[in-house]
Amino acid sequence: MKRNATLPKHGIAPGRLLRAMHAAKSGDAKWKSGHTWSLVYHLSEDHTEHLIDVYRLFFAENALSPTAFPSLKKFESDVVRIMARLVGGGERAAGTMTSGGTESILLGVKTHRDWFRSRHPKARRCKLIVPATAHPAFFKAAAYFDMEPVTIQTGPDFRLDSAEVAKAIDKNTAMLVGSAPSYPYGIVDPIRELGAIAQRHDIGLHVDACLGGAFLPFMRKLGHPIPEFDFSVPGVSSMSVDLHKYGFSCKGTSVVLYRDSALRRHQFFVKPDWLGGAYASAAMLGTRSGGGIASAWAALMMLGENGYMDLVRRTLSYRDRLWKGIRAIDGLELVGEPDMSVFCFRSTKHDIFSIGAKLEKRGWRIDRQNNPPAIHMIVTPNHRLAVSAFLRDLKNIVATEPLSKGKAPAAVGLYGVTSSQTSGANPVESLYRGLESNYE
Ligand SMILES: *Cc1c(COP(=O)(O)O)cnc(C)c1O
User: Fold this and answer.
1) 63 Cβ closer than 6 Å to some ligand 1 atom
2) Are residues 271 and 232 in contact, defined by beta-carbon separation less than 8 angstroms?
3) Which residues lie below 8 Å from residue 269, measured CB to CB, with a gap of 6+?
4) What pTM did the predictor assign?
5) Is 332 in the pocket of ligand 1 (CB under 6 A)?
6) For 180-264, where are the E strands, in sequence order?
7) Helix (H) or strand (E) holding 128
């Protein structure tokens, strides 16, 4: 194991240090040029500079104590209210800001568990029913909060079949899950049908709109037909919406929202008799960055409805060019019918991962997924200059790619570890090893 990091005896001058840290970035993903199709949601240099100014202003402030920092309390409650209204929340809607989609989902699940327990004190371990396409954070929540996840496979059109969900419900089921849209295929689950099932069984329905919550409402305002996905659907009890994706805030910002503040009550934690004073905490974290909360508020204020509509319109125009270009290449096709700016494509003639590897040789950072083997893409306003170059490279590569002889594609790496770390006979063990090796 390499263990060469040591605390320097004497501090390093900031100028020298900054140069070294710039150099350290040389191997990082090149997102500014649009060569990356995930992880970074960049709007413009100007927007980022303004967010940094705001972050600087609230760099030291701590939202652990809203009474010490009434400014942050106002920003957070404004952000929650604005986002709730955007996704169809009424007067009783409520929520909190969180550190990201994962925390929003963890809290949505924990809240439903505690609501279920309050009504069924004798029930055993409760269940959540999760589409296979839902984000891993739901499975993480089940593992953290001792619940049983029941996975529902999607149909041949990669859309969730709500009849399969209904069949899986039993007396220990606390909640259903839908995505708007799902990360792998960019497809919105049948939320109205799920809502009706949830109401019939008097259980919760969490809609994960981490990707779509700050995108689909503006698509609708632009006149695009979008599937019903939010609190306007009866039965939807909670939602997660990321601000650090299409909200174009800084990293570490998201909201978890509830149809009714009475449900949110089950999210809170209080310890009135703590020796350090009465303690009350709304979400998972203790200390919370004032910079993140202030940046999320500032992003909403700087862009406004027209700003978001404009960036959604531009993003969709780049997506449309990508779709047209991909469909024009022999053997390539989109997987299913994606609902917004997130999608994947596959090849009926070639090994798609070999195409991915060649794209990477040309400087693109490619996300791969299985079932079916495909290349995954998230389009943002920052891809303006990348679309033509990407399509040109893709076309050239496919033209020279030998036809696939049906061989199994190579193992895919996803988040947290690299693809070389995921290969091996025992995938669970190799993922644990991969995580460990990240800290060597
Ligand atoms: C990104 C994402 C999440 C998780 O969010 P993090 O911010 O990465 O924790 C959950 N669901 C969907 C659909 C996402 O795209």
Assistant:
1) no
2) no
3) 280, 281
4) 0.95
5) no
6) 204-208, 238-242, 254-258
7) strand 127-131
Cα–ligand 1 centroid distance for 397 (angstroms): 31
- Hey, whose CA ends up nearest to atom 3 of ligand 1? 101
Residue written as token pair 């800290």: 439
| Contacts of the segment 271-279: beta carbons below 8 A, 24+ positions apart | none
Q: How far apart are CA 318 and CA 386, in angstroms?
A: 9
Q: What are phi and psi of 129, to 5 degrees?
A: -100, 120
* Residue length of the chain: 440
Parallel, antiparallel, or unpaired: how do β-strands 204-208 and 238-242 relate? parallel
Token pair 């995921």 is found at 422
Cβ pair 264, 244 in contact under 8 A: no
Buried b / exposed e along 51-61 (16+ C-beta atoms within 10 A)? beebbeebeeb
**By C-alpha distance, which of 160, 104, 110, 155 is closest to 131?**
160
Q: Ligand 1, atom 4: nearest CA belongs to which residue? A: 101
Q: pLDDT tens per residue, the chain (440 residues)?
A: 456 789 999 999 999 999 999 999 999 988 999 999 999 999 999 999 999 999 999 999 999 999 999 999 999 999 999 999 999 999 999 999 999 999 999 999 999 999 999 999 988 899 999 999 999 999 999 999 999 999 999 988 898 999 999 999 999 999 999 999 999 999 999 999 999 999 999 999 999 999 999 999 999 999 999 999 999 999 999 999 999 999 999 999 999 999 999 999 999 999 999 999 999 999 999 999 999 999 999 999 999 999 999 999 999 999 999 999 999 999 999 999 999 999 999 999 999 999 999 999 999 999 999 889 999 999 999 999 899 999 999 999 999 988 776 555 555 655 666 555 555 678 899 999 999 998 88
